[in-house]
């Protein structure tokens, strides 16, 4: 049988893997390869937390391949040179991969595809990550969407899901002559074990993704609309890292949801599918407006009076020491687990960009290094949405009050108590704004800041004043 390289990138699964399936259906014996080339990702190379997940995801993929008689070839270096070397060593006649959409990797992949085709190889790239690709949908005028609701309507009207399929029961062996580096040689795993808390509730890899989906279908889905904004409860799917690393196909998730559809669950299912389409919307924006990873989509904010980031205040925000309990809880959850509840992500982002008036890029960079599901499209859209500078954005003058947000979405203060443990002894009302009870705070939580690093009312007033000035 002729050989084909199957270049794994952000698609670490064997089921529903279009590139792998296309190679097998075309009659090739697949040679699975992963190329570690962080230098080709520009400024937005994977952060430390994301690398920790990648290490375990590659390990799981390697084990899954070995169980089927194949193996994962690991190499590092320039992607084009590594592919050329593998082609020369194996005699491969084709190369398959699933597409990536980041500004740095798209032109690289286009150049590699052109070069390989000129050599006479068959080259095929596939959609392995999205329900609709960034160029699939256009407005009536032919341009890209900037508002989510019409994008969502168009996406649902044109939605065509691929068929799902199990992972191959067996795969051809990879010739022993093809050498592979060890996973340890890629240097992805943290040396000091600071990621221990990441794995208490999550299992990287395809099996972990499938299990997370089943847990969601049997549990949180049944109250998703009501519970998804509650960080004190398991009300979300927890699929984000698995989707980001391609350990599960989004269309498998949709089809699993549709298989459960009933009158009782219809609203829950529709709400979750809407979130998957929001993810597609993020990639749509990234493709059409690649400059937004570092610049405002709304040009009016290019001259907005952002405050100079105080190193001490920025550090306090990063480490959960702001004196605002819900903000500190979110940032400590992130530091410990590599994830943060989505509602709390909005709260901490609003606090940084509004109350501290720090440019959203500072927050995006911190999330990039500390989130296991750090995704350039979603990270950019999320930060610009909260900051009021992006597509379909929450207006800048919408300033989240972190106290009332905590009271609404963590009404029993359990999330705060879980992550800001020094406040667990405070009675419930004081847990939301402990500076209002200074004597109680001093007696029961002496190690917690006496006051927030910025007065909430003053921070809001300054943000609105800066916004008003920018309008003039």
Q: Could you characterize the architecture of this molecule?
A:
- Residues 2-131 form the Photolyase/cryptochrome alpha/beta domain.
- It comes from Pseudoxanthomonas composti.
- Keywords: Chromophore, FAD, Flavoprotein, Lyase.
- Belongs to the DNA photolyase class-1 family.
- This is Deoxyribodipyrimidine photo-lyase.
- By secondary structure, the chain is mostly helical.
- The protein has 3 domains: 3-128, Rossmann fold; 129-163 and 206-288, Serine Threonine Protein Phosphatase 5, Tetratricopeptide repeat (Alpha Horseshoe); 299-471, DNA Cyclobutane Dipyrimidine Photolyase, subunit A, domain 3 (Orthogonal Bundle).
- The protein is 47% helix and 6% strand.
- It is built from 20 helices and 5 strands.
- The protein has a 5-stranded parallel beta sheet with strand order 3-2-1-4-5, with helices on both faces.
- Helix 10 crosses helix 15 (376-387), helix 12 packs across helix 13 and helix 14 runs antiparallel to helix 15.
- It is globular, with a radius of gyration of 24 Å.
- The mean pLDDT is 96.
Instruction: Spell out the CATH superfamily of the largest domain.
Output: DNA Cyclobutane Dipyrimidine Photolyase, subunit A, domain 3
Order of strands across the biggest sheet?
3-2-1-4-5
C-alpha termini separation? 69 Å
Beta fraction: 5-15%
Rg (CA only): 24 Å
Main sheet record: 5 strands, parallel
Structural class: mainly alpha
Question: What is the string of SSEs from the N terminus onward?
Answer: EHEHEHEHEHHHHHHHHHHHHHHHH
Helix content: 40-55%
Q: Spans of 5+ residues with little confidence (pLDDT < 50)? A: none
Quickly give the CATH architecture of the largest domain.
Orthogonal Bundle
Give the CA-based shape. globular
The CATH class of the largest domain turns out to be Mainly Alpha
Number of strands: 5
The CATH topology name of the largest domain reads DNA Cyclobutane Dipyrimidine Photolyase, subunit A, domain 3
Query: Please, how many domains?
Result: 3
**Can you give the mean pLDDT?**
96
């Amino acid at each position: 049988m002729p050989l084909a390289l199957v270049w794994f990138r952000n698609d670490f699964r064997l089921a529903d893997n279009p590139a792998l399936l296309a190679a097998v259906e075309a009659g090739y014996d697949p040679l699975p390869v992963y190329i570690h080339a962080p230098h080709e990702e520009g400024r937005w190379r994977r952060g430390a937390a994301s690398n920790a997940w990648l290490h375990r995801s590659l390990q799981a993929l390697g084990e899954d391949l070995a169980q089927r008689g194949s193996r994962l070839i690991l190499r590092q270096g320039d992607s084009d040179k590594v592919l050329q070397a593998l082609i020369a060593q194996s005699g491969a006649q084709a190369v398959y991969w699933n597409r990536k959409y980041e500004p740095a990797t798209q032109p690289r992949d286009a150049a590699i595809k052109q070069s390989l085709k000129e050599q006479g190889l068959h080259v095929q790239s596939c959609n392995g990550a999205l329900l609709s690709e960034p160029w699939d949908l256009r407005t009536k005028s032919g341009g890209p969407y900037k508002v989510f609701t019409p994008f969502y309507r168009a996406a649902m009207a044109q939605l065509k899901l691929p068929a799902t399929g199990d992972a191959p029961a067996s795969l051809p062996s990879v010739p022993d002559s093809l050498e592979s580096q060890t996973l340890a040689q890629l240097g992805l795993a943290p040396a000091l074990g600071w990621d221990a808390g990441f794995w208490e509730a999550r299992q990287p890899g395809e099996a972990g993704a499938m299990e997370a989906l089943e847990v969601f279908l049997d549990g949180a889905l049944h109250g998703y609309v009501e519970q998804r904004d509650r960080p004190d409860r398991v009300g979300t799917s927890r699929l984000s890292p698995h989707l980001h690393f391609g350990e599960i196909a989004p269309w498998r998730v949709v089809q699993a949801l549709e298989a459960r559809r009933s009158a009782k669950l219809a609203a829950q299912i529709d709400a979750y599918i809407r979130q998957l389409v929001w993810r597609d919307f993020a990639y749509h924006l990234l493709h059409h407006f690649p400059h937004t990873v570092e610049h405002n989509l709304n040009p009016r904010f290019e001259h907005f009076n952002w405050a100079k980031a105080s190193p001490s205040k920025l550090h306090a925000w990063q480490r959960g020491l702001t004196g605002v309990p819900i903000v500190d809880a979110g940032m400590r959850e992130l530091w410990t687990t590599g994830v943060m509840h989505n509602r709390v992500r909005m709260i901490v982002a609003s606090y940084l960009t509004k109350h501290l008036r720090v440019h959203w890029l500072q927050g995006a960079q911190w999330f990039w290094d500390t989130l296991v599901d750090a995704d350039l499209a979603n990270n950019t859209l999320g930060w610009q949405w909260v900051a009021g500078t992006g597509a379909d954005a929450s207006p800048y003058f919408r300033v989240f009050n972190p106290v009332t947000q905590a009271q609404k979405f963590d009404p029993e203060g359990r999330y705060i108590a879980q992550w800001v443990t020094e406040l667990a002894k405070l009675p419930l009302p004081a847990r939301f704004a402990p500076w209002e009870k200074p004597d109680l705070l001093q007696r029961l939580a002496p190690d917690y800041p006496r006051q927030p690093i910025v007065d909430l009312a003053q921070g809001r007033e300054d943000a609105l004043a800066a916004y008003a000035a920018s309008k003039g």
